[in-house]
Amino acid sequence: MIPAAFDYHAPRSVADAIKLLGQLGPEAKLLAGGHSLLPMMKLRFAQPAHLVDLGRIAELRGISQVGNEIRIGAMTTEHELLSSKLLAEKAPLLVEGAGWIADPQVRYKGTIGGDISHGDPANDHPALMIALDASFVLTGPKGERVVKADGYFLGLYSTQLAADEILTQIRIPVPAAGSGWSYQKLKRKTGDFATAATAVMLQMKGKSVAKAAIGLTNAGPTVLKAREAEAYLAGKEINDASLNEAARLAMKICNPTPDQRGDADYKRAMCGEMTRRALQAAHARAKA
Amino acid sequence: MAKTQKVSFKLNGKPVEATVEARELLIYTLREKLAHTGPHIGCETSHCGACTVDLDGMSVKSCTVLTVQCEGAELTTIEGMEQGGALHALQQAFHEEHGLQCGYCTPGMITRAYRLLKENPNPSEQDIRKGIAGNLCRCTGYQNIVKAVQSAAKKLAAAR
Ligand SMILES: Cc1cc2nc3c(=O)[nH]c(=O)nc-3n(C[C@H](O)[C@H](O)[C@H](O)COP(=O)(O)OP(=O)(O)OC[C@H]3O[C@@H](n4cnc5c(N)ncnc54)[C@H](O)[C@@H]3O)c2cc1C
Ligand code: FES
Ligand code: FES
After folding, report:
1. Does A40 touch chain B (CB under 8 A)?
2. In this predicted complex, what is the ipTM?
3. Which ligand gives the minimal distance to the CA of B26?
4. pLDDT at B2 over 90
5. Residue ranges of E strands in chain A
6. N or C: which end of chain A has fewer CB within 10 A?
7. Which of 3.40.50.720, 3.40.1280.10, 3.40.390.10, 3.30.465.10 is the CATH number of A62-172?
8. Ligand 3 pocket check for B101: Cβ under 6 Å
9. pLDDT of residue B1
10. Statement: residue A226 has pLDDT above 90
């Protein structure tokens, strides 16, 4: 399995990478960890004429807190997310989610920016980003723009990123103290994509839900934000009745693609179950 | 004539150079140009881990890395584990604990376990099973592999 021939470019700065994208035009593709792109190129599903490797751009890596925001460079690997003390303390949902991605070898190479940019509804980061209310910094020839994760994913392999732009940074507002979190993922084995998975952030006020944010993985052509379920839960207590209704509302917006993991009805049912479990687990962790 | 370029990196401590097309995958450079046939090709689809090598302190599947990405890197393969004729503690432990049968997965398994023990010198059984989850073995049922890694961890700790 050998990819079709291409020219390789390894810029040292974001500015140089953007210049290259401009010069090379639509035949160029960015290379991050390569663990979605190279498999597709080996199968010749993708045959870019140029690869622009982001791997040598130091400014694209690292995790820090600036004010009330966590900033993660797009080329930060899953392995680095998993070993981050800052994330473990401030945004543990991201650490839990990264642990469900692929296997150790893939996590050393795979990047958060690549996982978000690939635009596959089976990728896990998009739902985590929706639950965490993240924003993305897109850098292009005219400078930077910041867009919300909610609304960024347009469809299969399609996002708001323009051909001459690079996703450079992920910004996450530090979740309110006491927020509960959970990522529940059903998969057949290590390294498998989700049959269904749900990311939840939950704030409680006394016994009732102050705010719920719910992202659904692999439940449609793109990640889904379970808006109706979120709105329904506000002000409710978490009990069997409210969990069932939230799961029903999440299932209502699912339109999963049947594949070897199951038919659409099964996947929809599993999305409901993952939603129920994620809400339960987040509730158990939340402090009012 | 296809366009080629020179790539230099360190392989098991020695500087090496290879002339490759940009599309060449690291596993082919290692096996066919640099005569390092320890890393195996099991699936070629990033799933089995037989091709695992250590690249700048990371366990990676060399069927899913381009050789041109390795310019200036430090690589370790199973060939680099033994030192001065003495087997690495992991190699010795796989031998003693019957951590292999056909041996196809073994170079990848040991190279992965090498990095795992560097990061976590005293792993629990659960840590080991999670840590080698990217390496498939069709023979052993993993039990003796886990034992071998545990045994090597103890020996390495005692030697420190
Ligand atoms: C065996 C295996 C199992 C896997 N299991 C999972 C799983 O369970 N869950 C999961 O989510 N993923 C899984 N993956 C995919 C893996 O996480 C990929 O690493 C990830 O999807 C893509 O990230 P990457 O850094 O490798 O990007 P690449 O493969 O290099 O790039 C992916 C795409 O994004 C574009 N891109 C990359 N970075 C940027 C950027 N900064 N700006 C703009 N565009 C960019 C590229 O041009 C390309 O189109 C698995 C992969 C393998 C091989
Ligand atoms: S040959 Fe590389 S993972 Fe199987
Ligand atoms: S010993 Fe045969 S595959 Fe592992």
Report:
1. no
2. 0.97
3. 2
4. no
5. 7-9, 28-31, 50-53, 63-66, 69-73, 135-140, 143-148, 153-155, 158-159, 166-173, 180-186, 196-205, 208-217, 224-225
6. C
7. 3.30.465.10
8. yes
9. 57
10. yes
Contact: B66, A102; criterion CB under 8 Å: no
Question: What is the percent of chain A with per-residue pLDDT over 90, rounded to a whole number?
Answer: 99
Mutate to test the interface with A, among B1, B8, B23 (most CBs of A within 10 A): B23
User: With an 8 Å Cβ cutoff, is A103 touching chain B?
Assistant: yes
Query: Domain residues for B140?
Result: 89-159
pTM value surpassing 0.90: yes
- Of B24, B53, B80, the last residue of a domain is B80
B44: nearest CB among A1, A7, A10: A1
DSSP A219-285: SSSS-EE-HHHHHHHTT-B-SHHHHHHHHHHHHHT--PPPBTTB-HHHHHHHHHHHHHHHHHHHHHH
**By CA distance, what is B2's nearest residue in A?**
A5
Same-domain check for residues B8 and B76? yes
Summarize the confidence of residues A253-273 as an average pLDDT: 97
Q: Which CATH number does the domain housing residue B130 bear? A: 1.10.150.120
Q: How many CB pairs under 8 A join A and B?
A: 81
Question: What is the per-residue pLDDT for A288?
Answer: 78
C-alpha–C-alpha distance, residues A214 and A201, integer Å = 7
Domain end residue (candidates: B28, B61, B80): B80
Identify which ligand lies nearest to the alpha carbon of B48. Answer: 2
Q: Domain residues of chain A, as ranges?
A: 7-53, 62-172, 180-285
Exposed, middle or buried: residue B40 (CB in 10 Å: 0-12, 13-18, 19+)?
buried
Task: With a cut of 90, say whether residue A92 has pLDDT above it.
Answer: yes
Of ligand 3's listed atoms, the one at least distance from the Cα of B109 is: 4
Quote the CATH superfamily of domain A180-285.
CO dehydrogenase flavoprotein, C-terminal domain (3.30.390.50)
Compare all CA atoms of chain A with the CA of B4 and give the residue at the minimum distance.
A7
Q: Do A190 and B134 touch (CB under 8 A)?
A: yes
Mind telling me how many Å the CA of A179 is from chain B's nearest CA? 28
Number of domains present in the structure of chain B: 2
Q: CA-nearest residue of chain A to B41?
A: A1
What are the distances in angstroms from CA A186 to CA A3, A92, A190, B2, B134?
Answer: 32, 19, 11, 45, 18
Ligand 1 pocket (Cβ < 6 Å) reads: A 29-37, 39, 54, 74, 101-102, 106, 110-111, 113-115, 117-118, 123-124, 161, 166-167, 191, 193; B 46-47
Distance CA A11, CA A31 (A): 11
Residue A101: per-residue pLDDT = 98
Mean local confidence (pLDDT), A141-151: 98
